[in-house]
Amino acid sequence: MKVVKSLMFILFVLCGLSGKAQEVAADSTGYIVRVGEMAPNFTITLTDGKEVTLSELRGKVVMLQFTASWCGVCRKEMPFIEKDIWLKHKDNSAFVLIGIDRDEPLDKVIAFGKSTGVTYPLGLDPGADIFAKYALRNAGITRNVLIDKDGRIVMLTRLYNEKEFAALTKKIDEMLAKK
Fold first, then answer.
1. How far apart (Å, rounded) are the C-alpha atoms in residues 114 and 118?
2. Average pLDDT of the segment spanning 25-49
3. Which of 113, 130, 116 is nearest to 66 (CA)?
4. Is 150 exposed, middle or buried (0-12, 13-18, 19+ CB in 10 A)?
5. d(CA 96, CA 65)
6. pTM of the full structure
7. Is 1 helix (H, G, I), strand (E, B) or coil?
8. What whole-number distance in Å separates Cα of residue 35 and Cα of residue 122?
9. φ/ψ of residue 118, rounded to 5
10. Closest by Cα among 143, 166, 139 to 153
11. How far is CA 107 from the centre of its chain?
């Protein structure tokens, strides 16, 4: 019995050290990632069927927008993302923008894109599994994650705030101006 208890203790310690049994610490907005960290990798299927893997976008400035059709703040923010970010940079091969729709089916995501008037790529996040790599699974949206050419997170936003959004657009402009 003593051996079993010892083995269970060792297993418990090893699980704790590997992070599997530990809680992930979130910031006050629910993010579990931090500025300066490497962005967690994922593969997403866009509404046109194309698959995109984040790590394959190294060398580009990447903006991720976590969204959903039921999110009123998302609907408010998306036209600004379209006008002030996407239309300005969509022809720049060094820039990628992906709207990641949280846990909704393809037909709903396509209709959502049309209803908001956005033309930037939207992708599917069944089960919110991609979202859960960046924030607590039950945390709210809208959220934007800005990633540099090396794959590091440089800015995190939550909800829609005009000053914060202006800072985001300025940061994208600055990053794209660097060669």
1. 7
2. 96
3. 130
4. exposed
5. 11
6. 0.86
7. coil
8. 24
9. -85, 145
10. 143
11. 21
Q: Quick check: 55 and 150 in contact, CB under 8 A?
A: no
Calculate the CA dihedral of residues 75, 76, 79, 85 and round it to 10 degrees.
Answer: -110
**Measured distance CA(131)–CA(33) in Å, rounded:** 11
Helix axes 72-81, 106-116, angle to 10 degrees: 60
Query: For residue 146, what are its two tokens?
Result: 């800005």
Query: Other CB atoms closer than 10 Å to residue 43's CB: what's the count?
Result: 12
- Rounded Cα distance, 51 and 37, in Å: 24
pLDDT in tens, 45-88: 999 999 999 999 999 999 999 999 999 999 999 999 999 999 99
Q: How far apart are the first and last CA of the chain?
A: 64
What are the structure tokens assigned to 9, written together?
């203790």
Instruction: Please give the full DSSP string across 125-175, using - where no structure is assigned.
Output: EGGGTTHHHHB-TT----EEEEE-TTSBEEEEEES--HHHHHHHHHHHHHH
- Report DSSP state, residue 86: I
